[in-house]
Amino acid sequence: MARGSRVRRVARVTGIGGVFLRSRDPVRLAAWYRDNLGVPMSEKGTVTFHWLDTATNEFPGTTTMALFAQDTPYIGEPHQRTMLNLRVDDLLSLMAKLKARGVEVLPDTEDSEFGRFGWCVDPEGNRIELWEPAEGM
């Protein structure tokens, strides 16, 4: 290869870089996520998860991007454009804790090949999916 020449790579997406929410009060909402869900948010409302730091063979740590039809009720109210899916280690205990703290917890859970799912709603009305992964996910 001649000096200065580069091998061209195909441009592509390599992972999810982040999830961003609009907020009427970012400081208050960051505190809610920190206090109720244990998300280690900074005072400014940011957090970065490094999957390589926490992944194991038993729990590899993945992030999924999925698209849904405009009229789906799955994501929440029609004005909600995004939904967080937060990986949890004990869904039923976390849902009980949230309910005891007065957080709106939706009554149904769902079991699938991917694990168990439950939902809660943050103080600004955003539906949050809580996911306890199936073994090996």
List the helices and strands and how they pair.
Elements lengths: L25 H12 L13 H4 L29 E4 L3 H10 L3 E2 L4 E3 L2 E7 L5 E7 L4
Parallel strand pairs: 1-5
Antiparallel strand pairs: 2-4, 3-4, 4-5
InterPro entries: Anthracycline_SecMetBiosynth, Glyas_Bleomycin-R_OHBP_Dase, Glyoxalase_6, VOC_core
Protein name: VOC family protein
Organism: Lentzea sokolovensis
Question: Can you describe what's shown?
Answer:
- This is VOC family protein.
- Pfam families: Glyoxalase_6.
- The protein has 137 residues and is α+β, with helices and mostly antiparallel strands.
- Helices cover 19% and strands 17% of the residues.
- Strands 1, 2, 3, 4 and 5 form a five-stranded mixed beta sheet that branches.
- Strand 4 (115-121) and strand 5 (127-133) form a beta hairpin.
- The longest helix is centred in the first third of the chain and has 12 residues, at 26-37.
- The mean pLDDT is 84.
What are the key terms here?
VOC family protein; 17% strand; 5 strands; Anthracycline_SecMetBiosynth; alpha+beta; VOC_core; 3 helices; globular; single chain; Glyoxalase_6
Quick summary:
This protein is α+β, with helices and mostly antiparallel strands and 137 residues long.
Radius of gyration: 18 Å
Estimate what percentage of residues fall within beta strands. 15-25%
**Helical segment count:** 3
Helical amount: 10-25%
Basic shape: globular
C-alpha termini separation: 42 Å
Poorly predicted segments: none
The secondary-structure class comes to alpha+beta
Provide mean pLDDT, rounded: 84
The largest β sheet comes out as: 5 strands, mixed
InterPro entries: Anthracycline_SecMetBiosynth, Glyas_Bleomycin-R_OHBP_Dase, Glyoxalase_6, VOC_core
Domain VOC: 15-133
Organism: Lentzea sokolovensis
Protein name: VOC family protein
